[in-house]
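It would be a great kindness if you could assist me with a short task in structural biology. The matter concerns a single protein, recorded as an amino acid sequence and a row of backbone structure tokens. Could you please explain, in whatever detail you think fit, how the structure tokens follow from the sequence? Thank you for your consideration; the sequence and its tokens are set out here:
___
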Amino acid sequence: MRLNLAQSVVTPEIQQEIEITTGSIDRLQTKWPSGLSLDLGKGKTYYDALPYLFISAFPSLTYADVRPFNIAVRLFASSIFIYDKLMDRQNGFDSISNGLRVQAMQLESYRQLHRLFGAESMFWERFQGYVTEYAQACLQEQAFQSGQRSWSEYTEAVAFELAIGKSAIAKGTIAGLAALAGSEGWLEPLNYSIDCYNIAAQMVDDLRDWKEDLQIGFPSLIISRVASPSEHRSLVASPEELEDRIGKLSRQIYYQGNALYVLNIALQSLDRATDAISSIPELGWHSELQRFRHYCQSLSDDIHKIITANLQRARQ
């Protein structure tokens, strides 16, 4: 899940829990070499306090009950963040030390989880399923990137499947809360809301990163709509050729409605995410959904205004 908690979502109580979690991870750090940091750094951790956005769906739980679980969630999520960068071969994330960081983070996360959930807990079966979803999505992405699968197969349905799969581990948060509370009544609607959120987040990421994705042959719905099959993975011969290709595709993305198309998918997905949990009151997750929907709508409005103004000037 591509979630950076906005200040409007982080209440004073949640901020206190973030600081407690950070202190706990700092103490775990003393057992590891300094070069294998368990902390991504301020503002870079996606899951600083994700369980607390859903805790009101499980009223028997207190913030104190969830603290050990929040440590595990943050560590495992951080490891996935690094691992995604390693798979994408992003600069600064291709070293042996980062591979070892992933191992350290996941080991410490599993230690926390084993203290909370017995071997027979349903949490483990569900969590294994979510990790499997993630692995399958990664393998599918690699198949498109390597050319094993044709980009003609990269349909909207496939894009949604990959968006859900790449962030499936986020649903482990709900599985853990349900297991801690001994209550599974909200498991399905909360998971569905997370899936819809992640479809929206992927659409926004694809629009923002399409130039970088094109250069490395990384699959996305918006590129599959505008680039010819030969352009999906073909290398450019020069900076001039790259600039020409990006210019052509940029016009297709923005002036043929493709940018607004993926943003509309995001908005519809966020509406479904909100509707799925409308009967759960006082859920912090509602605030994040509202914040992200406002962002998507503002971005869509801005793009529409800019395109309209540019087309009007061109006609004059």
